[in-house]
Amino acid sequence: MNERTAPRGKASGNSNIGDIDARRREFKWNRARQEAGLPEGGPFNIGWLCTDRICESGSGEKTALIWQSSTDEIKRFSFDDLRRYSNAYGRYFTDLGLDPGDRVAVFMDRTPDLYIGFLGGLKAGLVMQPLFSAFGEEALEQRLRNAGTRAILTSRKLAFRIRKIRDKCPALEHVIIIEPGDLQMKEGEQAFGIADAEPLDSFTCYEAKEETPSILHYTSGTTGQPKGALHTHGSLPAQALTTKWVLDLKKDDLYWCTADPGWVTGTSYGILGPWSLGVTQLVLDGGFTVNRWYEAIQNHGVTVWYSAPTAIRMLMKEGIEGAGQFDLSSLRHLASVGEPLNPEAVIWSQEAYGRPFHDTWWQTETGAMMVTNLPGMEIRPGSMGKPFPGITAAVLDEANKPIDEPNKPGQLAVRPPWPSIFRAYWEREEAYKSKFVNGWYLTGDQACIDEDGYFWFMGRDDDVINTGGHLVGPFEIESALLGHEAVAESAAIGKPDKVNMEVVKAFVALKAGFEPNRKLEMSIMNFIRKKLSPLAMPQEIEFVDKLPKTRSGKIMRRLLRAKEWGEEVGDTSTLEDD
Ligand code: PRX
Description:
- Helices cover 29% and strands 23% of the residues.
- By secondary structure, it is an alpha/beta fold.
- The strands form six sheets. A nine-stranded mixed sheet has the order 2-1-11-10-12-13-14-15-16, with helices on both faces. It has a five-stranded parallel sheet with strand order 4-3-5-6-7, with helices on both faces.
- Helix 5 packs across helix 6.
- The longest helix is centred in the N-terminal third of the chain and has 17 residues, at 79-95.
- Bound molecules: adenosine-5'-monophosphate-propyl ester.
- Adenosine-5'-monophosphate-propyl ester (PRX) binds next to helix 10, strand 14, strand 21 and strand 22.
């Protein structure tokens, strides 16, 4: 490979990881706490480790968070601010009568209260349940009901959405609204937030053990409603160490993770990893525009940037000239996650920013990066890299046995345990058990491994749709569609898209008396946007007389998908006769 196709990060040489081969050979997870600088015998409480411990080590005055609002107002919080305000939250939650283990949701835009309330809840031993602020009523209700969530921290704007579903969530006792202004509070609603709270100097954190539940993140599968992946306080060495070695964060870095904490990247690498290492991070609330993002890097001097292929493709659309209008020279290391990172994007970023994006692969269930391009490692554009030290990954054949032959596709699998692996799907034990076979955790992704041990992503092994790095389950969309008066039945699939990789397309059979037309199409689209989220909204609806089904009545999404992607249709022997 020549220089152009085999970029190397500038972080090589003096990277945190140093000698990669030696690390791989010598690595043991039981030394990870020490390696990440975490106290070995505890405390294990993540909230404490990300705030108090950093202050105790003498960095209390250091900026932890630079927050830029959607209207470009800027606020700074030191580690001591994080510590004292999260204490205030911890005390408030406890005084409210919430007990360790209770599920408490955070449902708001990327405001400081989201981050600080989240840490405060962890300090109090609560199981924090981040919910993406664009979730509509149905998406919200499902997650709150399934988790038996007792309290939700939200904003004035989103409180109205919660009110609509409140009586369907019997476990939900408290709705805590930050900055409610003149909002007339209803029963069970109360105001709290850092704008009014007194920072608290001391709070006795819940004495979490490594196995104490910490975070519940919902993720989509092919069948059924989204499942809650449960994580523990003992996960932190995995997040801290991958942050240190893959993102290469050093004490003077200014780090920017563009993900929302509604998704696992936004918590593992937008809260836990960087703050557990005492690193300053930027949070940019509000929407994406190319100029706004480049200005943020330039004005704040971002050095390490963790983002997603969809965003990179949007930046590529503006061309190298777009990047050239800004001073982006502060950037020293770039990484990406969530979807396949096209080889062109790796090469382009080398040209536009003078360094390549380093692809990383992982999932909500894995809690931390599993397959990565480490700084200093030769990058093969289009490859996800190699397993992180201490991680054993393989591709399995149909019998769930590892495939030895290079470049032969199979299901990507990882051998447990590692600290951040999920411990349950909340109240879905069978679904959880089905993810473990022959001592492997099955990822649901197809991949292959080349002769040099590089992993290449091939696609999903199931029907889950990945739109702009966000997973959406077809079943969620199809069952929500049934709530629309005109829909008799439907099938949702991912359709190829240049920027978002996939967008949702729905095939809809109408009830008698309804005629397909543009107005109806718009009405169905909006219905899903409101009920689920803008991500789940079909970008296209195709009206059909009937859907292809197996003889047992299961909709064959595979057929519809193959047609859409121009692929071979494959075996149709189980297809229902006409
Ligand atoms: O299909 C893979 C894709 O995203 C899935 C995990 O999604 P989620 O649990 O929402 O977590 C996303 C962020 C960690 C995977 O099963 N995916 C993730 N990273 C990559 C990827 N696909 C290709 N290349 C990647 N680097």
